[in-house]
Specification:
heterodimer; A: alpha+beta; eight-stranded mixed β-sheet; B: alpha/beta; four-stranded parallel β-sheet; about 35% helix; globular
Chain lengths: ~260, ~650
């Protein structure tokens, strides 16, 4: 018989908070695992009353939604945490932000609205902004036109199991070229598909179709995540919680 | 201009390398001070990968101690992996600190902590990447003073050509004294240049400046003598000893990396030094006497450290943690204090002692019992008498069985092979032991899924120990003994499948032996190996035995000595050893007597509980044993 922990089961989750955080500056070189460890420690330092799973190695209740790849910055990473007592979301945001390393900033927080569904279901696309130092905007513009004209652009990506072919084209919902002399900026809306298409894959695809080869590594920032609507824009994934909250408070006010 | 950040030039390179997070700094509790606000700039290096170097306690302590001084700053630098090193050379970016990415070449002092000799090639790589001349004699006053510290600094002769000084013993106070000297010399307009600065440093207690000592060799290849080249430097250099550990509660705010590191926990040093007298153990010999932190001192470090880091696990660190005079009470009171907080408490590998199982039970009473580690070190009772780590076979089996009976399912046993006087039979007893442990453990626990892992490595004789005269076993001997042991363990599959065996082949140990007991002539081998591409010699995927043996053969031949001469040769009583002018406090006569007693399989007791046996340390250094119990206890923390 396996040994069981003595005592009562851990206290249940009574409140779920959903938050948006950034990955800025040098922290763009952090991997998802690095950020996860960092967040768990910050939650402890900030004394957020986290709910834990049962068993001998209890884990804090944290659900990560997606994760920007190592090397990519982000303005819109999302996570959901479970608490054992209700807290003021803004107070949690401030305390957690102070406990996290500079560059990982908690920029938004909401209480999960009841009956609003899961956060993961509200995210199916990312908006990426990719700086291409040493590339002229016009150069990017024509490369992009060539790329968008194709139905499929296959690029090879290095994975743990060797090179793997990925179609970088199908996942791209929209893309524009802008920027200034000496530094083109690519803005691209990418659907979150399997296998994932990363901004690096799109840049590699530009090399494949138009021989666009940036002289130094591009810098990608995820600007937003959410559900892609018919107009090509990405909706705020915390929106439904905010609405539910307002609705709920409104109800209470009438009682 | 000095002190400017290299980050804008480094950043594009980081996008192209493995695990770039290790190079960006910004760890929780890291510090960045303005360059121009301070007089003395220290770069502190751990000459191994970031994931190994970051958790190093010694470096963290000095980092805080120095940064607390208003007139100094300290930043950290680690060995750069070959993928980034190649890009840095191409782009002309020098070795940098991770805190604010300043060029190491800009600093006044480069302090390098050598826990193991296998970091020597990484020092050369860092110096070269930094643009600092490899040889100390080629540096001028614009270059940092390269200071070696750590246990390996008790014989810095193999790196004497590359370092400007070595610090013997505890660094907490020594770094302050060095800072004072460098500051005064700079403020005075650098009188006498680099040589004058080094002469001044040589008068700081515990600081050894190799260039002021000349070594001559006799016709047999052994050292004929070591003489001073200036009469204002000490004939023998002593070690530094910090007394009253409660006065030095460092690290107060341990660094927490974003990157994964080898120790994902906070460590508190509960005492320093050890007088158990294990004859193979350099750490126990050179860190005497025992100085305990008090139970209340430990309690407040644990409390502050957890608050400052958010770590979930605390390690109670020392050379033999169960020997702390208040350990039972400490374990109980810490377990009480952190009950229900998901905080883990642990002791590192311990002596084989039933009491340790009780302690481990207490520390883990709120959590899972998985692995417990013991270090019998020697396979037979006879060899354990030789190394002075006496425990009977019955006690060993009983202790491990008790652990299984208490719900521990994995026991790891540490052993060495290649110990002086060892035979195949001594090593084969490990298989018998493990077999008995599993048999008795299955019976006592009533379960079949218990496991025992035998972890074994080759013994390397170290300076300042009774085994400093011993012949090191050859790589062939080690590999042979590991082979017969593995065959014996696997002989009975019904038991053998519950026994794991982890081991390292004998080759890296031979090179470690060369570097441990080498003299200045070995410096040419190190340089040659580095020039031939040697880096990260502590990593099996980077270590090349052939590169080392080829370099040793070629570079040592002109001196009439070779690799075997430094490793598998037994030394005689009156041979001048390369480190004889460096004083750990241990009497050479006492060490020799202890060596003879080892050969006679005689034990020596711990001086904490029996009368002083005159090892020499306390009278030489004016120190004394500092142990409790204090009679104090930990108060419960108020939970906010």
């Amino acid at each position: 018989m396996a040994r069981q922990p003595d005592g009562p089961p851990p206290p249940p989750t009574v409140q779920k908070l959903r938050l948006r955080y950034t990955k800025r500056g040098p922290l763009r070189f952090a991997s998802h695992r690095d950020l996860a460890r960092s967040l768990e420690r910050a939650l402890r330092r900030a004394q957020v009353p986290m709910a834990f799973s049962a068993g001998f190695s209890p884990h804090p209740k944290i659900s990560y939604i997606g994760a920007a790849p190592t090397g990519a910055a982000s303005e819109a990473e999302y996570v959901e945490i479970g608490l054992t007592r209700p807290c003021d979301p803004e107070a949690v945001r401030v305390a957690l932000d102070a406990a996290l390393p500079p560059g990982v900033d908690v920029v938004d927080i909401v209480q999960a609205g009841e009956g609003t569904g899961s956060l993961a279901d509200r995210i199916d696309a990312s908006v990426w902004r990719v700086e291409l130092p040493g590339v002229e905007p016009a150069e990017l513009g024509s490369a992009l036109a060539a790329f968008l004209a194709r139905d499929v652009v296959t690029v090879a990506r290095r994975t743990k199991n060797g090179l793997r072919d990925v179609d970088a084209r199908a996942a791209v919902a929209a893309a524009t070229a802008a920027g200034e002399a000496g530094c083109a900026i690519l803005t691209v809306v990418v659907r979150q598909v399997t296998p994932a298409v990363r901004p690096d894959d799109v840049v590699a695809a530009l090399a494949a179709v138009a021989d666009l080869r940036p002289p130094s590594p591009p810098r990608a920032v995820r600007e937003a995540q959410g559900r892609l609507d018919d107009t090509g824009t990405v909706a705020d994934p915390l929106g439904p919680d905010r609405l539910a909250r307002t609705h709920c408070q409104g109800e209470r006010a009438t009682v | 201009m000095n002190g400017q950040t290299l980050y804008p030039r480094l950043e594009p390179l980081l996008a192209q390398v493995q695990k770039p997070i290790q190079y960006v700094g910004g760890e929780l509790n890291s510090q960045v001070k303005a360059w121009d606000d301070v007089a003395v700039h220290w770069a502190l290096m751990y000459p191994d990968a970031y994931e190994v170097g970051l958790p190093n306690q010694g470096l963290m302590i000095l980092y805080e101690v120095l940064n607390e001084r208003p007139d100094a700053l300290a930043e950290r630098t680690y060995a750069v992996w070959p993928d980034l090193a190649a890009l840095m050379r191409e782009a002309g970016v020098g070795q940098f600190t991770v805190d604010s990415h300043r060029a190491v070449a800009d600093f006044d002092v480069l302090g390098v902590s050598f826990a193991t000799e296998l970091g020597y090639t990484n020092l050369l790589e860092a110096l070269d990447l930094a643009g600092v001349p490899l040889h100390a004699v080629d540096r001028d006053e614009s270059h940092p003073v390269v200071v070696a510290g750590g246990h390996a600094a008790f014989n810095p002769e193999p790196v004497a050509d590359f370092v400007d000084c070595a610090v013997l013993g505890d660094g907490e106070q020594a770094v302050g004294d060095i800072t004072d000297v460098v500051k005064a010399w700079k403020e005075q307009g650098r009188p006498g240049g680099r040589v004058e600065l080094l002469a001044r440093l040589s008068r700081v207690d515990g600081v050894y400046v190799p260039r002021f000592y000349a070594v001559s060799y006799g016709p047999d290849g052994a050292i004929a003598g070591v003489t001073r080249t200036r009469d204002d430097v000490p004939a023998r250099v002593g070690k530094r000893t910090v007394m009253d550990l409660d006065e030095w509660p460092y690290p107060k705010t341990p660094l927490v990396p974003l990157a994964e590191s080898v120790h994902e926990r906070m460590s508190v040093e509960i005492f320093r030094g050890c007088t158990r007298g294990c004859r193979f153990c350099q750490a126990g010999m050179i860190t005497r006497p025992v100085r305990e932190r008090t139970i209340t001192g430990i309690g407040s470090m644990v409390d502050q450290g957890l608050k400052a880091t958010g770590y979930q696990e605390v390690g109670l660190l020392s050379l033999s943690s169960a020997d702390h005079s208040e350990i039972g009470q400490l374990a109980k009171e810490l377990a009480d204090r952190y009950e229900g907080t998901n905080t883990g408490l642990s002791l590192p590998s311990t002596r084989v002692d039933a009491f340790n199982v009780t302690l481990a039970n207490e520390l883990s009473r709120n959590g899972r019992r998985s692995g417990l580690t013991f270090a019998p070190e020697g396979g037979s009772e006879r060899i354990r008498r030789v190394i002075n780590k006496t425990v009977s076979k019955e006690d060993l089996v009983r202790t491990v069985t008790t652990a299984y009976a208490n719900g521990w399912t994995q026991v790891k046993l540490y052993f060495m092979c290649g110990l002086p006087t060892e035979t195949d039979e001594d090593v084969l007893e490990i298989a018998e032991l493990a077999t008995e442990v599993i048999r008795a453990g299955r019976e006592a626990s009533g379960r079949k899924d218990i496991r025992c892992t035998v972890s074994i490595g080759g013994f390397v004789p170290k300076p300042h120990t009774p085994f400093q005269w011993a012949a090191q076993a050859s790589a062939e001997t080690i590999d042979h003994r590991l082979r017969v042991l593995r065959a014996a363990i696997n002989a009975d599959r019904r038991i053998g499948r519950s026994i794991g065996m982890r081991y390292h082949d004998g080759k890296p140990g031979v090179i470690e032996g060369l570097l441990s007991r080498g003299d200045r002539r070995v410096g040419r081998v190190i340089e040659r190996v580095w020039r031939d591409g040697g880096r990260f010699d502590g990593w099996s995927e980077h270590f090349s035995y052939d590169r080392w043996t080829a370099a040793a053969a070629e570079e040592l031949a002109p001196f009439g000595v070779d690799l075997d001469w430094f490793t598998t040769r037994e030394r005689s009583e009156h041979e001048v050893l390369p480190w004889d002018h460096l004083d750990s406090g241990l009497d050479k006569e006492w060490l020799w007597e202890d060596w003879q007693e080892a050969l006679n399989e005689e034990e020596v007791s711990d001086c904490r509980w029996t009368p002083c046996y005159d090892c020499g340390v306390c009278p030489t250094n004016g120190t004394e044993i500092q142990v409790g119990p204090t009679g104090r206890s930990l108060l419960p923390l108020t939970i906010v």
